[in-house]
Design a protein that fits this description.
The chain is of the alpha+beta class. Helices cover 63% and strands 15% of the residues. The relative contact order is 0.16. InterPro entries: OMP_efflux (IPR003423), T1SS_OMP_TolC (IPR010130), TolC-like (IPR051906).
Length: 471
Amino acid sequence: MKTAGLALISLGMSLAAPAFASAESLTDALTAAYGGNPALQAARAKLRAQDEEVPQALSNWRPSVTLSGAVGDSVMRGNYVPNLGEHNMQQTYTAALSQPVYRGGQTEDQTAQAKADVQAGRAQLHNTEQTVLLNVVTAYEDVLQGQALVALNRNNEQVMTRDLEATDDRFKVGEVTRTDVAQSQSRLSGAHADLVRAEGDLKAATANYLALVGHLPGTLTDPAPLNTLPGSVAEARDLAMHDNPQVVAQGYAAEAARHAVDLATDKLKPRVSLDASETNMMGGPEAYILQPPSSNFVVANEKSRVSTATLTLTVPIYQQGVEYSDIRQQKNLAGEARTQLDEMRRDAVDSATRAWENLQAARARITSYSAQIKAAQVALEGVRKENEVGSRTVLDVLNAEQELLASQVNLVAARHDSVVAEFALKSAVGQLTARSLGLPVEIYDPIKHYDDVRGKWFGTSASPDDGDGGK
């Protein structure tokens, strides 16, 4: 009897899950989500798009080359020489090259800003990965908790049914009153309502699990405790302040904002460009007789080539004041980014502290509720025996059963909260990743795509992961 309550909790999941369901560990669920969660895949695609900012910035070092052609035709008829006309057809082909020589430092600062944006994007991907994995852990534990609560409440309904039957039998022989029967009926109705609610909560948790992981849960098992957590709240706070991905992302965002100030200032500096072109022109006037016997005869058929090279220096003097306004604006945005970095650090420290305290509280609750269950089982057994000899009422038995159920439900919740708090703490310090958890997956490497596109001069093919199959 003393171990029945704890056994119900530990086996609640298997009692509630379908018999044909295959076993599924938390590692299995995390692995499935890492490979197929839409939010994570979208974040990776967003970062790949952000990678393109760097080659776009570097392109300002390169020349622009254009080819153009034109064909013209004109006809002129004169009045001074009767029946004589002129036909003029010309063809023009031009090749032009424009090479930026110096853009006032804009290329360098734009490239630096783009690189900072990419680093911020990688940190945001890290944050999305952590969010998805933590959501999966929570969903996994929600299903486990739901299965255990369904099992507990189903068992409680069965116990209340037997109690009502026993009380009704005793009422028929005059051992108890109708009040005792009504109390048993009330508790049975409440037990049924609790079971319906638990089943509804389990269905909702299962739907959330499906949305995050991509399939319905199998036979879930309690995960082992993490052994790589910070050793103290002080260590957790320090790690969170430096390694939390939101802090890292905002740090790079502040760096990008500083480069934006420099980029705005560069617009006040001189610019130098080199332009070269070569134009080939062919054709010329051709005279002809308008009346028969007509005979064309060429007056001129010219060919010419014009080559030019121009080095242009542009010095901005005053452009309506818009550049100065832009500089002031970017400075204020940089100040905002620095303030947001301070805010992110505080939020990260707060998250780490709360996760640490929640974990300690959940572990303490597990110890207390486990002891409470053992005591409640002993008390229930004693109350039932005392009820049999008439020293305890039916209500005393019902209350003892309710107290045992409440302690069992509380233990289930404490175990749920303990696991979630462990992973929340790992997330707060920036360590909730597929790599740090040792998931059996191919780790997504954002640097590979960046290296592929950074120096590209030509081509529209994206990587196979970009959504177009590399076309």
